[in-house]
Design brief:
Blueprint lengths: L1 H43 L3 H25 L2 H17 L5 H21 L4 H4 L1
Length: 126
């Protein structure tokens, strides 16, 4: 009987960790996407200095969450997003908005795929 209770307790602990990780990843991804949307607006308004400052803050925040993401998610996906944010900083200095906005859209899609990969769906489990 004790084994049953221990197994149930472990199952509850694993479930709680899974739910908290899913909530953390989803909320972090949404914050990063919102920040990229705000940066896109700044670039569209040709306010490059503010956009660069916002990208620096985004990069720092992403590096902070990167430590937690690496524990649960694919390292290559996280590295690609980090590289894209670094490239966005350089593109924000140029006068070509199209390159910046295209890379920003790609980065948002990569962030969304991180969030989708954590949903408890049959496709993600199998």
């Amino acid at each position: 009987m004790k084994r049953l209770w221990i197994a149930i307790l472990l199952l509850i602990i694993v479930g709680a960790i899974t739910v908290s990780e899913y909530i953390y990843v989803t909320s972090s991804v949404q914050k990063h996407i919102y920040a990229l949307d705000e940066i896109d607006k700044k670039i569209s308004q040709n306010d490059r200095e503010d956009a660069y400052d916002m990208l620096c803050r985004l990069e720092n925040r992403f590096e902070d969450t990167d430590r937690v993401f690496n524990a649960f998610l694919l390292h290559s996906d996280i590295d690609n997003i980090s590289g894209n944010i670094a490239m966005l900083k350089e593109y924000s200095k140029s006068t070509n908005n199209a390159q910046f906005l295209a890379l920003s859209a790609k980065t948002k899609l990569q962030l969304l795929s991180l969030s989708k990969s954590e949903k408890p769906l049959i496709d993600n489990i199998l």
